[in-house]
Automatic annotation (TrEMBL):
Name assigned to this protein: Sulfite exporter TauE/SafE family protein
Pfam family, one: TauE
Family, per entry: Belongs to the 4-toluene sulfonate uptake permease (TSUP) (TC 2.A.102) family.
Tree of life domain: Eukaryota
Length: 459
């Protein structure tokens, strides 16, 4: 009897365990199938939007286009206020809301970044005026950055072709998360410094001993001290335009990654690599000339004034080669990740020690040269939809002014330039989430589709 009861209990327990395990396996497989279906439907939903042809809107702008205009206005105003180009925000809007293909979205984005950056630069030059306009944009840093920045972008694009998608996505997520953390810490450090300065100023006013002279009083007697520096630096801008033209001609000759250029050059042929490698001596020659000219100018100023001015002091705080190296790394990462340089330029300038307002204005000044080069190249290579792209560029042009005015009034009212740093931090965090998310979707689609996931040759 005891043996029969034991056998009965054993059979019952084994039956219960088998049913439970089957139920668990069914549940787990159901969950995994739901996750698999979700991951498969997201790319399908994304591809459904990509099939929309922007030229098919013959009866006027649709709901998606108007929504894309509104979101682009908001993104451009926030990006301009933070001194960031905004390409990482424009691409998802154009891709998912406006229904443009990724190729068209990239071309439209170059128009939008150019429009926003041009508006911000014009606002800094025309509306701030005089010494303040010259102080906002640091032309010395722009000169030292620009040649190596453009060289780095070219090398980064080659690396983008060679590196697998999963590695680019992982590197982008890690690097941008690190930059977001560092920029956020810099923002809190500046915030605490501003709080101490505000407290010291309040105590000084209570003792009727003003800590700083008003800006008008400081400029009143010192209007002649700046000399030519208070005006527009035509010579520096002429050198920047010369750098822009040299690299632009080389990029037009090279063409895109499909071999489409102004002249017929075999992709990855001898002429292709000769033109590509010629960017290195161009960048080195321009950088060496700029460093020599700035050092000569600094010596002359020191001899005339008897002391180094603020510009010279700032340039002497770090070795001259730090700026070109930082520019090269920034450009290489920008080309590797396929994003605009503004998202990386501003944090780099902040980490070097450039004041937030100067970093924002100088970053957008350099972004204007990079984005305009891409825009003109798209036009010369026969881009379609230039009219619609110009509409987006006009929206970003207006939004950039709005963002610049709002952030300037907020800084003037609060007395805290750290607002720019926190705004940059927010844009970087949002860009990290957006680009990493869609990058992960692309990697998953390649993995499930059995695509090759290793390194590739540049040709």
């Amino acid at each position: 009897m005891t043996t029969q009861l034991s056998l009965l209990l054993l059979v019952s327990s084994s039956t219960f365990l088998s049913v439970a395990s089957a139920s668990n396996s069914t549940t787990s497989s159901s969950h995994s199938s739901h996750i698999q279906n979700l991951l498969n439907k997201l790319p399908q939903w994304r591809e459904h939007h990509l099939l929309v042809d922007p030229s098919s809107h013959g009866s006027g702008p649709g709901v998606n286009t108007v929504a894309a205009w509104v979101l682009s206005f908001l993104a451009a105003s926030v990006s301009s206020a933070g001194g960031v180009g905004g390409g990482s925000l424009f691409l998802p809007i154009l891709n998912l809301v406006a229904g443009l293909s990724l190729k068209n979205a990239t071309a439209y984005s170059s128009f939008m970044v150019t429009g926003g950056a041009a508006s911000n630069v014009l606002y800094n030059l025309l509306c701030t005026g005089g010494r303040r306009a010259a102080a906002l944009i640091d032309y010395d840093i722009a000169l030292l950055f620009q040649p190596c920045l453009l060289l780095g972008v070219s090398i980064g694009v080659v690396c983008n072709v060679m590196f697998p998608e999963w590695l680019i996505t992982a590197l982008f997520a890690l690097f941008l998360a690190f930059c977001t953390s560092k920029t956020c810490r810099a923002g809190f450090r500046i915030w605490r410094s501003e709080t101490r300065s505000a407290t010291a100023t309040a105590n000084a006013h209570e003792r009727m001993e003003p800590l700083l002279l008003p800006a008008s009083a400081a400029d009143g007697n010192g209007g002649e001290a700046g000399g030519d520096d208070t005006g527009f630096p035509w010579k520096d801008v002429a050198v920047l335009v010369m750098v822009w033209l040299c690299f632009f001609v080389l990029h037009v000759f090279i063409g895109d990654k499909h071999g489409k250029g102004m002249i017929r050059i075999k992709p990855c042929g001898v002429a292709y690599w000769l033109i590509t490698l010629s960017q290195v001596p161009f960048a080195v020659a321009f950088t060496a000339y700029i460093i020599y000219a700035k050092r000569k100018k600094q010596v002359v100023h020191n001899q005339e004034d008897g002391k180094a001015n603020l510009e010279g002091t700032k340039m002497e705080t770090l070795p001259s080669l730090v700026f070109p190296l930082a520019a090269f790394v920034t450009g290489a990462l920008s080309g590797l990740f396929g994003i605009g340089g503004g998202l990386l330029l501003n944090p780099v300038l902040l980490q070097i020690g450039i004041p937030p307002q100067t970093a924002a204005a100088t970053s957008l000044f350099m972004v204007l040269f990079c984005a305009s080069m891409s825009m003109v190249q798209f036009i010369l290579l026969g881009m379609k939809g230039i009219g619609e792209a110009s509409v987006y560029a006009g929206i970003c042009f207006v939004a950039s002014v709005v963002g610049a005015v709002v952030i300037e009034r907020a800084i003037r009212k609060s007395g805290r330039v750290s607002l720019i740093v926190f705004l940059v931090t927010g844009i970087m965090a949002l860009s990290t989430v957006i680009v990493t998310f869609f990058g992960a979707l692309d990697v998953w689609e390649q993995y499930t589709g059995g695509a090759y996931m290793g390194f590739k040759l540049p040709c």
